[in-house]
Design goal:
This protein is of the alpha+beta class. It has 4 domains: 13-181, GAF domain (Beta-Lactamase, 2-Layer Sandwich), CATH 3.30.450; 199-317, Beta-Lactamase; 323-495, Beta-Lactamase, CATH 3.30.450; 578-725, Histidine kinase-like ATPase, C-terminal domain (Heat Shock Protein 90), CATH 3.30.565.10. A hairpin with a 6-residue loop joins strand 14 and strand 15. The two termini are 79 Å apart. Residues 19-35 have a biased composition (Low complexity). It is found in: Cell membrane. It catalyses: ATP + protein L-histidine = ADP + protein N-phospho-L-histidine. Residues 1-35 are annotated as: Disordered.
Length: 735
C-alpha cells in the first residue's frame, strides 16, 4: 500500500514521516518493552517519565479538537492500551494482535495515518477486525524510541466522520516527537512542585497553532505561547511575567454579550478555582484590530496526591467559523426580506442591517443602477448609532471612488485601510470617503451585484478596525450580493413576463374581436342563403356553402376559445351558478354531437341516473361536456365507442367520459392541461386541434370547486373524470 506525505485522498491521508524511521518488529521488541512496557506500572510512557499516557492522550485530543484519544504500546506481537481519554476511547480493546488492529496500518506506512471515515477508508478496511463500531474517524501517530523504532502510538478518535486538518495532524505529530525526546522531571514528591514549566511543554506550546496558557497554584502565569499572543494581538515582547491582569487592561476579554469579563470569569481563573471549562466562546479585543472569537477549554492540574498544581487553558480561533454561521443566518434574513418586498430598494434597509450585523461592522451601503440616468444611485445605508456621517451619498457617474471602481471593473474591491488608500484624494466621492475615515472607518469591502455579467449595483461594507480574512469575507459578502442579483434578475424576468402576458392578452383580444365580427357576418349570410327558400342555388353551390358554414363555425369556436383563454389569464373568467340537472346537460350534449359521431362511425353510450342535481353554470357545464365529448369522438377510430357515466356519491357528482381511441402516453399526461399542448399521439395521427379545449375545461371545473383528471383504467383509450360538489353552491366569480 503506497502512502504519500500530506496528500489528501478520497479515503484517507498520510502525514509526513521522519527520516530513518525503523518500524517495530522482533528487533524492536526490547525497545518497546523498555519504552512502553512499564506504562501500567508507573503511569508513564517510556522510561522517560515526562508525561503519563492518560495525560498524553488527553493533550493529543485537545490539540486535535477531538473528543477522545488512546495511547498504546506496541511490541512484536500485540498492541496494548497504556492510556485513554474520553468516552469514545472506552470501547478500545485492552490488547489486540498487531495484524488485527490499526497498529498494522501505522507500522506498514511507518508514519502518521489519517482516516476521515473508517467505514470507507481502504487502509482501515485491510484490518481484519475493527477496533470499535463507535469509532468513525481516526488520526494515528507513532511513538518512537531513541533508535527511531515505533514502540507505541497515539490515536485521536471521533465518533463521527470528520476531516482532519493538516494543522491538527502536525500538532499531534509534534507532540509525539516531543514526548519521545522529553526528559523526566525529577523531584522529591514531598517537595513543592516546581514553578518552572518543563522544557518539553514549553517547546511544544511554542510550535502549536492553538493558543495555550498555564498558571501555577498561586495564579502566576507560567506559559503563554506564541499562538495565544498573536490571537490576542499582544506584542512578541510580552511575557507571562507581565501578569494576566496586565493583558486584560489593554486587551480585555469579552463575553458574547460584548461586556468585559471580570477576572473571575476568565477561563484560566475559573479552572484554577476547580472548574472544568469546555468550549466556552469569548471575544478577544485589541485596540484598532478586529475582534477575534476563541473557543476556550480549561481545566485544573492536580498532583497524584490531589494537590492543585495550577491550571491550563487552550483557545481555538473560531472567528471565521462563527462568522460563516452568522452569514448562514444572514442569508435566511436576506431571503425573507427580499421575498416580502416588492423591490430591492424596499428590502435594502433590512438587508443592510442583517449584513452589517453579521460582519459586526458599523456601516453598509447599497447602490443600484438607474436605468434612466445610467448612474449608480444610493438606495439605502445602515449605520451603527455611534456613527454620524454628515456627507450625503452622491450619485456615481464614473469609475472614481470605491463604488465607481467596482462598477467599472465588475470585481470585488478590498481596501485594507481607508486612511492610507488613494480613495481619500479629491472629488465628491473622496469627500464622502474622508468623512468615513474621520468617523473611524478603516477597512472597506465592496462587491458588485451582477446580472448575466452586467453590474446592476454595488454593496459596500465598512469596518471600524483594520480587518483580515479578505478571501473569506469576500466570499461571504459575494454570496449575499449573488442573492440580491438573482432576486433582481427574477424581478426583471417577472416584469417582462407580466408585460408579455398583458401584450399577449391584448393581442388575443384584439385579433379575436376583429375576427369575430366578419366571421359572424359570414356565418349569418351563409345561413340566410342556405335557409332562404327563395334563393335558388345548384347542388354544388349548396355543398360549397355548407363547407363555408362548417368552417366558419369552427373558426368561431377557436375565437371563442381564445377569448376564454384571454379572460382566464387576465382573471376575468366568470361562472354564474344556478341549480341544474347534469343528466339533462349530458343528453343535450350527446344530441348535439350525434351527427359528428355518426359521420365518424363512433357509438355514443350513456350510463346516467334519472337526475343529478348540482349548483353550476349551465352554459359553462355544457362547454365542458361538449369539449370532452367532441375529443372522445374525434380521437376514436371508426367502430369505436364513447361512454358517458354520471354517478352521485355523498355530496359529489362524478362525470366520466371514456373512449376507445388512440390514448395518451402516461409521461405526457401532466402537461395535457397546459395551453396549446397536444399529445404526441394526436400529432402523429394528423388529427387537427388547437390544444386549448382541455385548458378551458380545467378552468371551468376548478371555477366550480371541482377537479378533473385522467383516470388510470385498463384497456385502450382515455377516461377523463370530473368531480363536482353537488350540495355546496360555489361563490360567483367577479365580473
Amino acid at each position: 500500500m503506497g502512502v504519500s506525505g500530506k496528500q489528501s485522498r478520497k479515503r484517507g491521508r498520510a502525514a509526513p514521516d521522519r527520516a530513518s524511521a525503523v518500524p517495530a518488529g522482533p528487533a524492536g521488541a526490547a525497545g518497546s518493552a523498555r519504552a512502553l512496557g512499564s506504562a501500567g506500572a508507573n503511569g508513564a510512557v517510556g522510561h522517560r517519565r515526562s508525561v503519563a499516557p492518560d495525560e498524553l492522550a488527553e493533550l493529543a485530543a485537545r490539540l486535535a479538537d477531538a473528543p477522545a484519544a488512546v495511547c498504546t504500546a506496541i511490541d512484536a506481537s500485540a498492541e496494548r492500551v497504556a492510556g485513554r481519554y474520553g468516552a469514545a476511547a472506552e470501547t478500545w480493546p485492552e490488547a489486540s494482535p498487531i495484524e488485527a488492529g490499526p497498529a498494522a496500518c501505522v507500522l506498514r506506512s511507518n508514519r502518521s495515518v489519517v482516516v476521515d471515515d473508517t467505514s470507507e477508508d481502504l487502509r482501515w478496511g485491510c484490518c481484519p477486525v475493527s477496533v470499535s463500531e463507535g469509532i468513525r474517524a481516526l488520526l494515528g501517530v507513532p511513538l518512537r524510541d531513541d533508535d527511531e523504532r515505533i514502540v507505541g502510538a497515539v490515536y485521536v478518535v471521533d465518533a463521527a466522520p470528520r476531516h482532519w486538518e493538516e494543522a491538527q495532524v502536525e500538532a499531534v505529530d509534534r507532540l509525539a516527537i516531543l514526548a519521545g525526546n522529553a526528559r523526566p522531571i525529577r523531584h522529591d514528591p514531598a517537595e513543592p512542585y516546581p514553578d518552572v514549566p518543563h522544557l518539553f511543554l514549553s517547546a511544544l506550546l511554542e510550535t502549536l497553532d492553538v493558543g495555550v496558557a498555564a498558571c501555577d497554584a498561586d495564579g502566576r502565569l507560567l506559559l503563554y505561547n506564541r499562538a495565544l499572543r498573536e490571537l490576542r494581538d499582544l506584542p512578541a515582547s510580552w511575557s507571562p511575567t507581565d501578569g494576566l491582569e496586565a493583558s486584560l487592561v489593554t486587551n480585555p476579554l469579552l463575553g458574547l454579550d460584548g461586556q468585559p469579563l471580570p477576572l473571575t470569569g476568565v477561563p484560566l481563573v475559573r479552572a484554577l478555582n476547580g472548574e472544568v471549562v469546555e468550549q466556552t466562546d469569548v471575544i478577544m479585543t485589541a485596540p484598532g484590530r478586529r475582534l477575534r472569537i476563541g473557543s476556550a477549554n480549561a481545566k485544573p492540574i492536580y498532583s497524584g496526591d490531589g494537590r492543585c498544581l495550577g491550571a491550563v487553558t487552550a483557545f481555538h480561533d473560531i472567528t471565521d467559523r462563527r462568522r460563516a454561521e452568522r452569514f448562514a443566518d444572514c442569508e435566511l434574513q436576506v431571503a425573507r426580506a427580499l421575498a416580502e418586498a416588492h423591490s430591492v430598494a424596499h428590502a435594502a434597509p433590512t438587508v443592510l442591517k442583517a449584513v452589517a450585523r453579521s460582519l459586526q461592522w458599523p456601516h453598509a451601503e447599497l447602490w443600484l443602477l438607474d436605468a434612466t440616468s445610467e448612474h449608480l444611485e444610493p438606495v439605502a445605508q445602515w449605520s451603527a448609532p455611534a456613527l454620524d456621517l454628515r456627507v450625503e451619498l452622491p450619485s456615481v457617474t464614473g469609475p472614481e471612488g470605491i463604488v465607481g471602481s467596482v462598477w467599472a471593473s465588475g470585481q470585488p474591491l478590498w481596501v485594507p485601510d481607508l486612511l492610507t488608500s488613494p480613495y481619500v484624494g479629491s472629488g465628491e466621492a473622496a469627500a464622502r470617503t474622508r468623512e468615513c475615515a474621520r468617523q473611524g472607518l478603516r477597512t472597506v469591502l465592496a462587491v458588485p451585484l451582477l446580472d448575466e455579467g452586467v453590474v446592476q449595483g454595488v454593496l459596500a461594507c465598512f469596518a471600524d478596525t483594520i480587518e483580515g480574512g479578505e478571501e473569506l469575507l469576500t466570499t461571504l459578502l459575494g454570496t449575499i450580493a449573488h442573492q440580491i442579483g438573482q432576486y433582481m434578475a427574477r424581478r426583471r424576468a417577472d416584469e417582462l413576463a407580466l408585460e408579455l402576458a398583458r401584450t399577449k392578452d391584448q393581442f388575443l383580444a384584439l385579433v379575436s374581436h376583429e375576427m369575430r365580427t366578419p366571421l359572424t357576418a359570414i356565418s349569418t349570410y351563409t345561413e340566410l342563403i342556405l335557409t332562404d327558400p327563395e334563393q335558388e342555388c345548384s347542388a354544388q353551390h349548396r355543398l360549397l356553402l355548407e363547407r363555408v358554414d362548417r368552417n366558419t363555425r369552427s373558426l368561431r369556436a377557436i375565437v371563442n376559445d381564445l377569448l376564454d383563454l384571454a379572460a382566464l389569464e387576465s382573471g376575468r373568467f366568470t361562472v354564474s351558478c344556478d341549480h341544474v340537472d347534469l343528466v339533462a346537460v349530458v343528453h343535450d350534449s350527446v344530441g348535439a354531437a350525434a351527427g359528428a359521431a355518426r359521420a365518424a362511425g363512433v357509438e355514443v353510450l350513456t350510463d346516467v341516473p334519472d337526475r343529478a342535481g348540482l349548483w353550476a353554470d349551465v352554459v359553462r357545464l355544457r362547454q365542458v361536456l361538449d369539449n370532452l365529448l367532441s375529443n372522445a369522438v374525434k380521437y376514436s377510430p371508426h367502430g369505436g365507442e364513447v361512454r358517458i357515466r354520471v354517478r352521485t356519491e355523498d355530496d359529489t357528482v362524478r362525470l366520466a367520459v371514456s373512449d376507445t381511441g388512440i390514448g395518451i402516453p402516461e409521461a405526457e399526461r401532466p402537461r395535457l392541461f397546459h395551453r396549446f399542448y397536444r399529445a404526441s399521439t394526436a400529432r402523429n395521427h394528423g388529427i387537427p386541434g388547437t390544444g386549448l379545449g382541455l385548458t378551458i375545461v380545467r378552468a371551468i371545473v376548478e371555477a366550480h370547486g371541482g377537479t378533473i383528471a385522467i383516470a388510470d383504467v385498463p384497456g385502450p383509450g382515455t377516461t377523463f373524470e370530473v368531480r363536482l360538489p353537488a350540495s355546496e353552491r360555489p361563490a360567483a366569480t367577479p365580473d
